[in-house]
Amino acid sequence: MNRIFAVIVGIVGLLVAGIASAAEPFRIGALFSITGPASFLGEPEKNTLEMLVKDANARGGIGGRKLELVVYDTQGDVTKAVQLANKLIKNDKVSVIVGPSTTGETMAVIPLAEKEKIPLISCAAGIKITDPVKKWVFKTPANDHVAAEKILIQAARLKQKSLAIITVSDGFGSSGREQLKALAGQKGFRIVADEVYGPKDTDMTAQLTKIKAAKPDAVICWGTNPGPALIARNMKQLGIKVPLYMSHGVASKKFIELAGADAAEGIMLPAGKLAIFDKLPKNDPQYKLLKSYDESYRKAYGVEASTFGGYAYDSFLLISGAMKKGTSPQQIRDGLEQTRKLVSVSGIFTMSPSDHNGLDLSAFEMVRVTKGDWELIK
């Protein structure tokens, strides 16, 4: 009798433990540059993820399971990003991490995610994040070689054969520079000037004076604010009148605001569809989602949604889909890799064991700054 009672107690204990475990919230960690020079990335990412988690929990969670979000501010600092990632994994026991916001931070965190076997969904664009593929690492912005190719397709259309490039000396800029040089060579362009600037530089006239002397058909700047805005202004001051391209790293109205409408006028860049969703045909597969996201974000925060916040939105959609496969870190990882034709803010994701980004050229539209706003280049 005692043995039967012990067995029954054991079974009840297991059932209670199972119920308690099922009732525990699914914990999502996030590393964003909420303050510091990359706050234009991290703030909308944080806002977006908090908005989506709050909305999901109001609807009962995902699959009946509530979500818990743990967000830390890396301030754009590589060392801090690693320390906080370790805290999310060891102390907070998260099942997945969204972020970091920048390529440099992400590259620093990757070894930890791989070692601890926690899926990481980066919100940074550098191609080296997912190429070569790392088992536990994914990312939502399209690879920078896709953005570079989009720029070069436009340059070829305009018969611009000699190019000058000016890139920031951080992880994002270094990766972009590498992709631009490789693709330009493959596509028959000539790089007549190759200049670099620091993330904290406040004047680029020395580099731009060299570029002006090289007489390129067009200039390509690769970086994130505030540097590119300074370059746009410096080019105007130096009377450099050749066309200027920017990377997708400045695809928000903040860039136009920082550069000033006059200096930004005519600048071309690849941008995610969110920036110009109101100019898309209504039958575009992303249109409804983009419109809904922008309306929700405006209602919650009083400003328009940005492409960068969209990277966090996509991470949430990917996690939600992966949770259908299970909620352990391994099951989330497997679910992410099995994502197929997921319509999102940044594009339509199709992941695979050989592709942990899942986006192609269709993720971007070429836009031009016209009278302080985006204009779709057709």
Automatic annotation (TrEMBL):
<dbReference type="InterPro" id="IPR028082">
    <property type="entry name" value="Peripla_BP_I"/>
</dbReference>
<dbReference type="Pfam" id="PF13458">
    <property type="entry name" value="Peripla_BP_6"/>
</dbReference>
<protein>
    <submittedName>
        <fullName>Branched-chain amino acid ABC transporter, periplasmic amino acid-binding protein, putative</fullName>
    </submittedName>
</protein>
<dbReference type="InterPro" id="IPR000709">
    <property type="entry name" value="Leu_Ile_Val-bd"/>
</dbReference>
<keyword id="KW-0813">Transport</keyword>
<keyword id="KW-0732">Signal</keyword>
<comment type="similarity">
    <text>Belongs to the leucine-binding protein family.</text>
</comment>
<keyword id="KW-0029">Amino-acid transport</keyword>
<feature type="domain" description="Leucine-binding protein">
    <location>
        <begin position="26"/>
        <end position="358"/>
    </location>
</feature>
<dbReference type="InterPro" id="IPR028081">
    <property type="entry name" value="Leu-bd"/>
</dbReference>
<dbReference type="InterPro" id="IPR051010">
    <property type="entry name" value="BCAA_transport"/>
</dbReference>
<dbReference type="GO" id="GO:0006865">
    <property type="term" value="P:amino acid transport"/>
</dbReference>
